[in-house]
Write a structure and sequence with these properties.
Blueprint (H helix, E strand, L loop, with lengths): L3 H7 L2 E7 L6 H13 L18 H9 L15 H12 L5 H17 L2 E9 L10 H14 L3 E9 L4 H14 L4 E7 L11 H9 L3 E6 L5 H9 L5 E4 L7 H10 L3 E3 L1 H6 L11 H6 L4 E3 L4 H4 L3 H10 L4 H13 L5 H20 L35 H7 L2 E7 L6 H11 L9 H7 L6 H4 L17 H12 L5 H17 L2 E9 H4 L6 H13 L4 E7 L5 H14 L5 E6 L12 H9 L3 E6 L5 H11 L3 E4 L7 H9 L3 E4 L1 H6 L11 H6 L4 E3 L4 H4 L3 H10 L4 H13 L5 H15 L3
Parallel strand pairs: 1-2, 2-3, 3-4, 4-5, 5-6, 6-7, 7-8, 9-10, 10-11, 11-12, 12-13, 13-14, 14-15, 15-16
Helix pairs in contact: 1-14, 5-6, 6-7, 7-8, 15-16, 17-32, 19-21, 22-24, 25-26, 33-34
Zinc ion binds next to strand 1.
Length: 747
């Protein structure tokens, strides 16, 4: 079985809003430029945007001299819609004859096929530039030929630039109709929407409809809701290109939903042209929830970096469920400008694909039954805990709904079975070099892992993989699974599943601990790692910051070196340093220099201590490392003086009760010291540690406290502690706390 991202990439899709000119790339543009230059036709800058050419110096210089740029990306210097139209228009005036169009079309179709696009409506410009040498009459047979020979269904939409003006547009439509080519199914109008009122083009659109062409129009992209109303009322369009600014008019949103008028939405395009701040602020979700038939499209992928599959993946990372995204896929086919029968058969293909993927057994069962280390707290591994469903008004329901902070969670401990299977199938290779020397040594002790040392990957498919004999086996297994995170894309994959799960629990803010040693060995520089983590955080629907864990097991020198590199490549969403690993073999003291260095660089710090070792180790940590928080720290319960110190100095303990029970430290939650520590005034935070390995989650941790008799207000205090002790500013914490109280006090 594929995970959601795999499923979305593989599923047959429809693309309804793709400009052929938007696929102009390095491979296509430079040869086209050369073709016309060598024919003595350059420079030929008749573009309607010519007056703006000096705003784009690289492009201007290149068009005049043929030098100063080697990649199409060199021209993409725009930051708003107008700048985009300049660059679009000035580059596309080198697409001049039918041969150029056919060349672009074949390359575009190949890229669509690679993304499993099954049906596309390609927008080809008619009347864009005076230099254009093709007319509907001679282009028609070429477009028909491209469509006929494509391995997927290709239909054409004639794109009329609005700056043609009403008369010229009507004339082009008449020519199109007269050319009578079968793969042309519709017309749309694009360009600088704001400057050309749609109503004036009613005649052109009426003529097109009269001759059986279907109608769409760019509206509500660069201009507001009135432009969408006009496209609907004056032009009689069936679909709207973009249409996203309909969100400013609730009556219009209601109308689109009621009438079932599909929007061709292109989220990344709208972000790059500055219409919305980022994908998280894009109204697609609101439109979808209002019942508007939303379709997902890429617009101009070479200009926006907006390949269709990635549009789906981005929404998935924002928390859209697989079923919701499938609905968008279906909307794309349902809104296609083709007959009902074709739509039905395409939808059948989608259905068949989903059934085949979902029905097929996972290589690893999705839920792996394991008696935990303690002999049975958790019987489920590597899976997301089920979404709880409680009675409205109950404390349980409140716990689920209230915004929470998760401060103690290892990214490697969030891997789900589908994610792991995907990575395993991606690499199909393993060697002990991928894990630390201590783990590699320890592995030899565990029969289930031994075959892996000889390169036999089937060991990882053994149902006994998660039957841990002890803590050591647990650590090694985490290390082995984590060693399949080898590229930034793998990090993104694991993080997406983790963040989705956090979102489902209404966690509003999380500090995710990542394995700095592993990440330093990814196929990427530390700066690239930081950039990717920043972008994961920025596209997350909740606050996400990162804690880098250099790992005890590699010793203090390694930790110091790694943290030094990290500080050099410091990135925005890095909150601080955490340190975990074999506490017994690598006690805290030798890491003092590393912590000092981090603190001098204004990084916040936390360390796992007092989980396996006793209260002495916590004293060392408190006295010598100056950390802000302590991971676990539960053994402090043995030492009343230490308890007082922690309480007085408000040094928070990140406590993960289920993890401690699962690793056999306490037989049940009732025996866990969290109750005594809290009663003694210690600042307690709850965390889930390695949630998928132990089959737990943060909501479950709060529910367990409630079930063992904690007062409702005490739960609130722990929830508040999560935000108060987070590595964020006081103002940010206050904002979260206001949200907490708004929910808590509404009861
Ligand atoms: N032409 C190509 N892409 C366009 C867009 N996003 N809006 C208007 N016209 C366009
Ligand atoms: Zn467009």
């Amino acid at each position: 079985m594929k995970d959601t991202v795999g499923l979305l990439r593989g599923i047959p899709k429809a693309e309804l809003h793709l400009h052929l000119g938007g696929t102009l790339s390095t491979e296509a543009f430079f040869p086209l430029y050369e073709k016309y230059r060598s024919a003595g036709e350059e420079p030929y800058l008749d573009s309607q945007r010519y007056q703006n050419i000096s705003k784009h110096p690289v492009l201007e210089n290149f068009l005049r001299t043929g030098s100063g740029a080697t990649s199409f990306e060199d021209f993409l210097d725009f930051t708003d819609f107008d700048g985009f139209l300049d660059v679009y228009s000035l580059t596309n005036c080198y697409v001049r004859d039918a041969e150029d169009i056919a060349l672009l079309a074949r390359a575009a179709i190949a890229k669509l096929v690679a993304q499993n696009v099954r049906y596309v409506e390609l927008d080809v410009l008619f009347g864009g530039h005076k230099i254009i040498k093709y007319s509907p009459g001679d282009l028609g047979p070429v477009l028909d030929d491209v469509a006929k020979n494509a391995p997927i269904t290709v239909q054409w939409i004639a794109g009329l630039p609005c700056f043609l003006g009403p008369e010229e547009s009507s004339r082009v439509v008449k020519e199109l109709v007269a050319a009578d080519f079968t793969s042309l199914v519709g017309v749309t109008m694009g360009g600088p929407e704001k400057q050309f009122p749609h109503a004036e083009y009613a005649e052109a659109f009426r003529l097109a409809a009269e001759h059986g062409l279907r109608l769409s129009c760019h509206a509500g992209e660069a201009d507001g809701p009135h432009s969408v109303w006009s496209a609907i009322n004056d032009l009689n369009v069936e679909r709207v290109g973009h249409g996203v600014r309909a969100i400013e008019d609730p009556r219009l949103v209601g109308y689109l939903a009621e009438e079932g008028i599909p929007l061709e939405i292109c989220p990344t395009s709208n972000v790059v042209t500055g219409i919305f701040r980022d994908i998280a602020h894009h109204p697609i979700r609101e439109l979808y929830e209002a019942g508007v038939p939303v379709t997902l499209n890429s617009d101009d992928p070479s200009f926006f970096g907006s390949e269709l599959n990635e549009e789906f993946v981005k929404l998935h990372r924002l928390g859209w469920t697989e079923d919701e995204l499938l609905e968008l896929v279906e909307n794309g086919f349902a809104a296609a400008f083709t007959d009902e029968e074709t739509i039905e058969s395409l939808l059948d293909e989608v259905q068949a694909y989903v059934e085949a993927e979902r029905g097929e057994d996972a290589v690893l069962p999705e839920v792996i039954n394991v008696p935990s280390l303690a002999g049975g707290v958790s019987d489920e591994h590597l899976h997301d805990a089920p979404a709880p469903n409680y009675e409205t008004g109950s404390v349980e329901d409140l716990i689920v709904r209230v915004p929470k902070a998760e401060l103690h969670i290892h990214l490697a401990g969030t891997m789900t079975a589908p994610v792991f299977v995907q990575l395993l199938d991606k690499y199909r290779s393993w060697s002990p070099d991928l894990i630390g020397a201590w783990d590699a040594q320890a592995m030899k002790r565990f029969p289930v892992l031994q075959p892996l040392l000889d390169g036999d990957l089937n060991a990882l498919r053994s149902p006994d993989l998660f039957q841990f004999e002890d803590m050591e086996q647990f650590s090694v297994t985490v290390g082995v699974l984590n060693s399949f995170v080898r590229e930034l894309d793998d990090v993104a994959l694991v993080a997406a599943a983790a963040i989705e799960n956090l979102g489902r629990q209404n966690i509003a803010y999380a500090e995710l601990t990542f394995d700095l040693e592993r990440f330093s060995r990814l196929d990427a520089s530390m700066v690239e790692v930081g950039d990717r983590l920043d972008s994961i955080s920025k596209s997350a629907p909740l606050g996400v910051r990162w804690l880098a864990d250099p790992g005890r097991d590699f010793g203090p020198d390694s930790a110091q070196g790694l943290v030094e590199r990290l500080i050099d490549a410091r990135f925005e969403t890095l909150a601080g340093i955490s340190l975990s690993g074999r506490e017994r073999d690598f006690p805290p003291r030798p890491f003092a220099d590393m912590f000092r260095m981090a603190q001098n660089a204004d990084l916040r710090t936390t360390i796992h201590a007092g989980e396996l070792l006793g209260s002495d180790s916590i004293w060392h940590v408190v006295n010598e490392l100056g950390v802000d928080r302590i991971g676990h720290g539960i053994r402090a319960v043995d030492d009343p003086q230490l308890i007082d110190l922690l309480a007085d100095d408000a040094i928070a303990l990140e406590i993960c009760p289920s993890a401690n029970v699962a690793t056999g430290m306490y037989p049940t939650l009732a025996n866990h010291p969290i109750h005594d520590l809290f009663d003694a005034g210690v600042t307690v935070i709850l965390g889930s540690d390695y949630p998928t390995f132990f089959g737990v989650d943060l909501v479950g941790e709060y529910l367990s406290l409630w079930e063992t008799g904690w007062a409702k207000n005490d739960l609130l205090e722990v929830i508040e502690n999560g935000f108060l002790m987070a590595f964020i500013s006081d103002e940010e914490a206050d904002r979260y706390l206001n949200r907490v109280h708004a929910i808590w006090e509404e009861e």
